[in-house]
Amino acid sequence: MARTTAPDAHNSLDARSPVDAHSPLDNLDTFEAVIAADGRIEPRDAMPDDYRRALVRQMSQHANSEIIGMQPEGNWITRAPSLARKAILMAKVQDEAGHGLYLYAAAETLGTSRAEMTEALLAGKARYSSIFNYPTPTWADIGAIGWLVDGAAICNQVPLCRASYGPYARAMVRICKEESFHQRQGFEILLTLSRGTDEQHEMAQQAVDRWYAPSLMMFGPPDADSPNSAKSMAWNIKRFSNDELRQRFIDMLVPQAKALGLTLPDPDLRWNAERGHHDHGDLDWDEFAAVLRGEGQCNAQRMAHRQAAFDEGAWVREAATAHAARAAQSRKSQEAATEESAA
Ligand code: 3HC
To answer: How buried is 120 (Cβ within 10 angstroms: 0-12 exposed, 13-18 middle, 19+ buried)?
Structure first.
């Protein structure tokens, strides 16, 4: 029983296929058939344990990234150079919190609770993106994050709108729409600075120099060193390899950098007519490995801040739990009273 979804329906919010709109797949042969037909897997479907684990690993890493990713920019909300800039930045940081919540909720449909995912993050057992371990010393860094980091996120995440797992793919549609706005606000910050005074132009250039290589590392290690790619691609979770997406991003950035009047800090960057792509220099994969080991410039600070925010939020979680228990109790009493009066 192979179910497929029309290709354009993958990208439409209206194309939600509610879990109960079909009978759940009840065995792994039908799972394989749906994957082979490029169909969607839904929460109640039978699925291999490895598929479930791969999704929870990637989705929780992604959700954690959105939440930790609020920190480098949150740090500039009170210092943004105008009221309008503050309001825009605050909205953007709130969007990231929302993305984290969509993704934790989508991952919960696989049977791992948000509390478990948060615990794993705080215990250092779950990852978040390397990119958020770099500092934001100037206002221009906020522009560079929007242009490069959100730009890389869009490049990586638009194909995830066609991921085989329904809740993940549907969450990604909305996230990508918001990321497009984020990318444009970053571009606009850099454009304003680039066209400003010499000092402002220099500040924009230095921020791009700081964020360019780390943003290319967001796509993950080179394909030859990517242990998860083969399976993720066979299961239609990832649609393109890490290197393919990185190349696509570089090709996209070159004309945008020209429009900004800024330079990409790679002396080996040049158009290769034969390949139809830009050649580029090597990245510092030792630095990437160090950041993943927790030895980046801001790893300790990011985790300490997340732990403090979690601890300070304990009373909110307790209050929400108490409120939910009281509401359930009062619903129960009302139902009992209704039944009694009907009897
Ligand atoms: N930062 C931290 N860890 C990374 C990483 C990065 N940039 N790139 C790869 N890794 C980790 C992987 O998680 C994996 O470790 P694990 O097995 O313990 O999970 C290991 O390095 C090997 O990498 P693989 O290439 O084998 O891993 P994947 O196949 O999962 O590919 C990925 C990595 C491309 C990042 C993929 O997981 C992915 O597409 N994830 C969804 C997108 C995402 O997580 N984005 C986070 C960016 S932040 C963001 O989007 C916020 C926005 O507001 C900017």
So the answer is: middle
Backbone angles phi, psi at 279, to 5 degrees: -75, 155
> Alpha carbon of 41 to those of 91, 109, 234, 284: distances in Å?
33, 12, 14, 37
Distance 326 CA to ligand 1 centre (A): 41
CB of 221 within 6 A of ligand 1: the answer is: yes
Question: Cβ(57) to ligand 1 under 6 A?
Answer: yes
pTM: 0.90
Top pLDDT among 17 and 29 is at 29
Task: Report the 10 Å Cβ neighbour count for 7.
Answer: 9
With a 6 Å cutoff on the Cβ, whether 217 touches ligand 1 is yes
The shares of helix, strand and coil residues in the chain, as percent rounded to the nearest 5, are 70, 0, 30
Q: Point out the ligand 1 atom lying closest to the alpha carbon of residue 157.
A: 42
Whether the CB of 150 sits within 6 Å of ligand 1 = yes
From 149, 155, 151, select the one nearest 130 (Cα to Cα).
149
Q: What is the pLDDT of residue 12?
A: 38
> 309: left (phi > 0), else alpha (psi -120 to 50), else beta?
alpha
Which amino acid appears at position 326 of this protein? R
Report the nearest-CA residue for atom 44 of ligand 1. Answer: 62
- The predicted-structure confidence for 125-176, as pLDDT tens digits, reads as follows 999 999 999 999 999 999 999 999 999 999 999 999 999 999 999 999 999 9
In contact, 131 and 90? CB cutoff 8 Å: no
d(CA 32, CA 280) in angstroms, rounded, equals 38
Whole-number Å distance between alpha carbons of 50 and 133: 29
Nearest alpha-carbon partner for 167 in 324, 340, 328, 16: 16
